[in-house]
Amino acid sequence: MPVTDVRHDLDNLTLTIVADFAAPVERIWQVYADPRQLEKIWGPPSYPATVVEHDLTPGGRMTYFMTGPEGDKHAGYWQITAVDEPASFSFVDGFADQDFNPNPALPVSTNVYTFAEHDGGTRATYVSTFESADALQQVLDMGVVEGASSAINQIDELIAS
User: Fold this and answer.
1) Which of 103, 124, 98, 150 is nearest to 32 (CA)?
2) How high is the pLDDT of residue 136?
3) Which of 3, 4, 21, 128 has a CA positioned 20 to 30 A from the CA of residue 118?
């Protein structure tokens, strides 16, 4: 399993996940740069993603929905704020309605994903920062740690194929 560490810090409003992959940085970057690959790992296995819009450039947007086992759809978006290919990208991540308009009733996070060479492979560090401790606690209660970990753990199978 690639995920090696998960920490949440209510004082600093952060959730940090660290994962190690036996693949070069450029290969892990491609998982996020290619919408068809991203679909295979964004969301837990029981909630596969469909990427609708994908513009991984500063100011760009990524929209998607995940489909649950009962056919229920859950939409979200990324607003891309910075890109340093293949080392990192930053984005605002939020929940959305079915037309991809932000859902103000659910938390928004600011995210920095970094990819660095580590032991012949890649160490990915995923840091999400929330607006408040309540917002972080809300996503923790929604199962974000389990969901994100199971999603990230799908990357090994993708890069092996």
Assistant:
1) 124
2) 96
3) 128
